[in-house]
Design goal:
By secondary structure, the chain is of the alpha+beta class. It has helices at 5-13, 39-49, 51-57, 79-90, 103-115, 126-145, 197-210, 227-236, 265-277, 280-296, 299-307, 321-333, 335-340, 347-369, 374-391, 396-411, 415-422, 433-455, 467-472, 488-500, 514-520, 522-525, 535-541, 547-556, 564-571, 573-576, 586-597, and strands at 16-19, 24-27, 33-35, 150-159, 162-175, 178-191, 218-223, 241-242, 254-255, 260-263.
Length: 599
Amino acid sequence: MGRTKSELNNQIRSLFEYSMEENVSLCKICKTKLAGQHSTNLRRHIETKHKSFLNHLTPTVEKNEPPKKKIRISYEIDAESFESSLVKIITKDGQPLSQLDSEGFREIVNPIFKALNMNSINSHNVMELVNKRVVEMKKFIKKVVEKKLVSIKIDTATRFDRSILGINLQYLEFKNSTLEIVVKTLGMKTSPYPYTGEQIQDTVLDTLAEYDIRLEQIYCVTSDNGRNMLKAVEIVNQDFYEIFDCIDELPEILFTSSLHSMRCAVYSLQLCVTDIHKDKGIQNNIEDIRKVCELLRNEKYRNMLTECNRAVPPIDIAIRWNSTYVMVKQLLELRDFVEEEKIIVNWDWIQEYVSALEPIWAATMKLQVEQLPLCDLFKIWMELKLNFRESRNGGIKQIIYNSLLNRESLLLSNVTLLSAVYLDPRLNVLLTESQKSSAKANLKSTARQIFNLKQSKPMPTTQVFTEEVSQHCSFIKREPSSDHESSLLSAYLDQIAQETAATATEDDVSDLTKVFVEIDNFENLHRRLPLNEDIFSFYQNIRFISPELFELALVVLGAPATQASVERAFSSLNFVLSESRNNLNNKTVEDLLLVRLNT
């Protein structure tokens, strides 16, 4: 028979000296004094501080106690599914390869290996399964992009002295009766040295070759405004476009070939906010706020805020405006507390700052989280501009409005954006005749390129319309939307539509293809849609009537507005690369990331 609970409590008490005068128990091991001599308190102390002693005192099980009953568990699984689960452990779950060698893990999986008649999988051979998945994924992507015009987005990051170039593929796909933007990771290419423009260009081209993607299949490249990124695209297009030099900042690149460049929309908005923080008065106010937040983070105020379940305001990173906005906004939320503590703060200015930046903050978050077409980027931009135009009062909002105006011309010099806006019946009334002409020329060039990729021969210059097509292409007088939207942009669009509406005249289309006619007369063929209409739904509804235009829209509206998905992919580096997992070679890191990001 083993020891009883009473015997165990007596042995625990033997580890203490009890003083009746003080009513305390002194631990003989660490000399800690405990109130009273209740066995529960004494045992808790031993369990917490001296667990090794408790192991020797634990009551033994009675010798005649029957063993615990084991339960047989059965479930259905095949070798392929089991292999897939093991791959997920080291890719999607981010567990180290050594996890597959741990004793406890082997006790669980070895019976499964035996039942499935499989060879054991461990840290030494699991990468063979990962490589198999990589081959399967590349084969799938090759099939998807074959003879198609697609877009890519690129960005770089640094982790543990490794430079990583992320390359994403983006396209619009009609699936399950809906249109959706699809993003696939083509590669997370690592290098021990920072990427130059030439290295980015070489790596991107090599990566595209892995998927049998030819350069003429790339419609648009979206990146930030980094010099190395712009240099990479410049090298690829050196015979087809010219660069407009600017002293203060590198501008958008205007392409005359099929390969276009698009600056990340989030970056464009960030530049507008950067203009605000160049103002000396604003810098001084932010510095005063930063000092107040530092004061609130000391031990006294931190404890007071914690007791009240209030958030302690963070200290911003000066070069990141979004962190500054969060700091100022959280301080505003603590106004009652700060005023009670008699801390002097310029609340009027803080309110003005938060009110001015809140719309840009919301727009930035939307662009970073959602995959949006370029026309929706322009919609967001115009809504911001009109919002600030109506509410500007000479302060921060005036600075933002002026910055949006200055950068809008640069944004609208990009033919990729113009093409997407032109194909959007909600917004194309905003374009000038010159901008429409640029968009039409690019759309015709893109349509020809789509045709060449599919047919592998030049596009014919003539095509006879069928009766059905002729009926569809009958010209319609464009009318303003009857939808009573409340937004400033909607009212602005209705005003423009009323001022510019005119009856279209029918052209001689005998020498034009159907899609060229539809491009030239798009705004006459389709009335302006309300702003709350979904542009993807519009094209889903006309895909059978105008299949060529639908196919063109898949390319143009599939161009990325941001490279946010690449930035999010970099967060996966934390699962693959760490201080304890930094000895993986580049090929292993790239394959683990490729499987993780495409699963």
